[in-house]
Design brief:
The protein has 226 residues and is α+β, with helices and mostly antiparallel strands. Helix content is 33%, strand content 23%. The chain is built from 9 helices and 6 strands; from the N terminus they run H-H-E-E-E-E-H-H-H-H-E-E-H-H-H. The chain has a 6-stranded antiparallel barrel with strand order 1-2-3-4-5-6. The longest helix is centred in the middle third of the chain and has 16 residues. The chain starts with 16 loop residues before the first helix and ends with a helix.
Length: 226
């Protein structure tokens, strides 16, 4: 039994044969119920709340706790050796409105992510399966567009950190054109996943835009007030 390959950008050697055997046995005998509850893979870009414009691509693996609460594990890729870089919680407007004012300022909207075509659910990319998948994806976007998210990143991979260093960083979403090099970043992502943000933007033209609470997306409002 050979040990799986390791990442060159993470310190440490390959797993020992003993570790591989133990992990293989555990995966056969243990039931990873919380992880099995994951029901959606989303991909988008987050920006640092204290440094708007500096961004990280994040793969979200999300599960529903209730109709009004979702929780997501964030990775820097979609492969078996992807690094866990953060977490995100998503809630409905009715829950968001119950939060204290200062707490609401930590949360962000998803309107721009959805309407711009940035937010995707990677999946089938060859016709005719692609059309079926995109219909399902567009329907999901109708739900996500109204949600508020609170996200913390633990590993600043964008600056080359080999390990998760320092305190967790509050992140936020992009809310308008011109806040980062959208076409380059999202275009590079699309080439890897076989997707097209321009096409998705067209498909989502009919999605109704909800009103955004004035306390959300506060990082951009602070920046614009300077």
């Amino acid at each position: 039994m050979s040990a799986p390959s390791t990442r060159a950008d993470v310190p440490g050697g390959p797993l020992s044969t003993e570790d591989v055997v133990l992990e293989t046995g555990a995966s056969m005998l243990q039931d990873f119920k919380p992880v099995k509850n994951i029901c959606a893979h989303l991909n988008a870009f987050h920006t640092y709340a204290d440094e708007p414009g500096r961004f990280v691509e994040a793969n979200h693996y999300c599960a529903h706790l209730t109709e009004d609460v979702r929780q997501c594990i964030l990775y820097d890729g979609d492969g078996p050796k992807a690094r866990l870089i953060g977490i995100e919680y998503m809630i409905t407007p009715k829950l968001y409105e119950t939060l204290p004012e200062e707490e609401r300022k930590l949360w962000h909207s998803h309107v721009y992510e959805v309407k711009s075509g940035m937010l995707i659910m990677p999946g089938l990319t060859t016709p005719p399966a692609r059309q079926v998948w995109e219909t399902a994806e567009t329907q999901e976007m109708k739900h996500v567009i109204g949600l508020y998210g609170k996200v913390y990143h633990l590993w600043q991979t964008d600056r080359g950190d080999e390990l998760p260093l320092g305190e967790p960083k509050l992140m936020t979403s992009f809310t308008a054109d011109g806040q980062f090099d959208f076409e380059k970043a999202v275009g590079d992502r699309d080439r890897r996943f076989g997707t097209d943000w321009k096409h998705k933007k067209q498909l989502r033209e009919g999605i109704e835009v909800p009103s955004i609470h004035p306390d959300a997306d506060s990082a951009w409002k602070r920046r614009n007030s300077i």
